[in-house]
Known about the structure:
Chain A is mainly alpha-helical.
Amino acid sequence: MTTKKYETYYVPAQSHWPIVGAVALFMIAFGAGNYVSDLAKGEGGYGGYLLLAGIALIIYMMFGWFKNVIDESMSGKYSPQLDSSFRQGMSWFIFSEVMFFIAFFGALMYIRVFSVPWLDGAGNNVMTGEVLWPEFTATWPLVKTPDGTVTQGMGWYGLPLINTILLLTSSITAHFAHIALEQDRRPQLKAWLGVTILLGTAFLGFQVLEYSHGYSEEMQLYLTSGVYGNTFYLLTGFHGMHVTLGTVMLIVMFFRILKGHFTPKSHFAFQAASWYWHFVDVVWVMLFVFVYII
Amino acid sequence: MTTDVLNDHDSHEGEHHDDHKMTGIKRWLYTTNHKDIGSMYLWFSFIMFLIGGALAMVIRAELFQPGLQIVEPDFFNQLTTVHGLIMVFGAIMPAFVGFANWMLPMMIGAPDMALPRLNNWSFWILPFAFAILIGSFFMESGAPNFGWTFYAPLSTTYSNGSTAFFVFAVHIMGISSIMGAINIVVTIMNMRAPGMTYMKMPLFVWTFFITAYLLIAVMPILAGVVTMLLTDTYFGTSFFDAAGGGDPVLFQHIFWFFGHPEVYIMILPAFGIVSTIIPAFSRKKLFGYSSMVYATASIAFLSFIVWAHHMFTTGMPLFGELFFMYCTMLIAVPTGVKVFNWMATMWRGSMTFETPMLFSIAFVILFTIGGFSGLMLALTPVDFQYHDTYFVVAHFHYVLVTGSLFSIFAGAYYWLPKWTGYMYNETLGKVHFWCSLISVNLLFFPMHFLGLAGMPRRIPDYALQFADFNKWVSIGGFAFGLSQLIFLVVVIKCIRGGEKAPAKPWEGAEGLEWTVASPAPYHTFTTPPKID
């Protein structure tokens, strides 16, 4: 009887978390809008505080909402069908993230293949090159923009290469952790997951180091340094944010494992975090190839 | 065994009955019920439709005669911008999500959407997003004034300072759309009743399935492009500024890579609704079901490779213009398949003309007119003349108003008995239809001539020779706007009472939603039905 009971799909009772989340997003959007507008006018305002309060509220919401889901899951309310809803939901979410990066990669490709050469007169744009900025020469990395901002390209060796190795290794250790979980070897699971988190954190540390190197006097690679700096910082920056989120997810999983959560058969949350981790890894490989090497 | 499950579930529900069913405002704020959320989406979209319509009426009042009478040019720009944004993101899209919420679980025999709490979140983000957008009218900077397409540099260098609010409002409505779309896809993939294979799904379900996929694919692109816009405006990047190596045309490429699938997001569900209604009132099966599925999928695929037909005048290489012209014309093939299938469905059917059917037939004819003007716009050489004229305005209003919006009315009339438990007033419904039909053509048809004669869009004043047509267009606009109040009356009357609706009020209707009582019980299909 008890097993049959939950063969029906679990439709949760009413929940107040979504509306809390909606209010939080409103505070974030409205706060950020105010903050950025005030910044442009050079005034101080309450926007920044509203933004921070919104972020705090959304973190609070995530704790509450996920706690709800975890409690329901641990008390056996969920069916395999619901589990596959979660899995499919997560994979489509990752797909949407991929599309977000495609927007930026698309911009990078367009700039490199079309807009920069065109400014130098490529294709049928001879007069563009002659009339607008005759001195401009198309190069990539764009070390000198048409209006004369000078910068330097970031090499692929050194920090970026180390980071590539770190992140690729972390994807493998995350996979080992997953295998350990499926074979119910908890000590190995904790060890491999711990190593993954350390590698992720090290990656982020090196990324900060790389940014400070970029912002140094000798490199002068700023966010404002023309399209090379723009694409470099936005692509690596958004990737870094996703790595941060992925690391936080893995840390949460680590604590849940310490509390004895997950079984070899049922560990959707762990799998979702691990999928996410592999996703940021793949994005990094694309970044390494198209932003650093080529 | 089935009864065991049923009883068990009932008793389980019984225990918690009190804490599950909240009343008053909390019911709507905390709900996880797909029918509640569907109703909220539909009401929200109707309110947005009235607000967006009010803005349009101010626009038409200004354009009633040449010269500047009512509004300043800058405010006129704000009106056209916010009208477009509200109608696209606030009226049409949420209305379809409302239909999806109400009907999908019932059509596939599921107890609810796959992720009910996420569903609630998706909805409640929207009122906040639009509060920011509409609220910007009352801010110091004013509302966005750069057109709903927010081309750089209008939205960057020459922005009136509203860009930041606009960008963040778009971000959160994008989050809402993506989550809503994920919910739809997962529901359809995972929650179909046993025996309902993909090719047995109602076509309505198919169109929403494909639409949701488009949403997940392109809303992140929109998020990306507004992010670049934000950094260009406030943080000194130059994605869309040639001085830093970027290109304003890059903005248009990314925007329309989102924007073209976006217009199919607004029409594919309409195809689904019309494909449900026409068979019901022709008392025949839908002609060519599988060809309809493949046609929908082909249109969705093609929507990703035609975006630059919005940009023929930007000075693209010749090869690009030819490629995008031919791909665009290719869309006429699957769309033609659809139109012929609808006509073949009606052919020798035993037809009756209740309000949903009237709107559906009007949809087929008027959407086809919009499709043909689209074909004209697809021709690169002539597009140089039509570009940014009222011809374009006529084209997209024919596909969006007499297309998408008419299908929404058709669907609303069709399912109102299921939603409310009462029949709507057929006479008033027909009055609404005929008033809308006549006024909408008076409103949009002369715009073709205005455009061909060279009247530019988005300008508050015009040359004297356009005065006569503009007068009639404005009169049509006011009449169309006021006609929609009839719809409001019909809906409110229908909610409050009327003739009791049977479980299946339409003789020729098919689908699982007609096997449950009218109004549909709060929970339907807690145990899935068996489909043969």
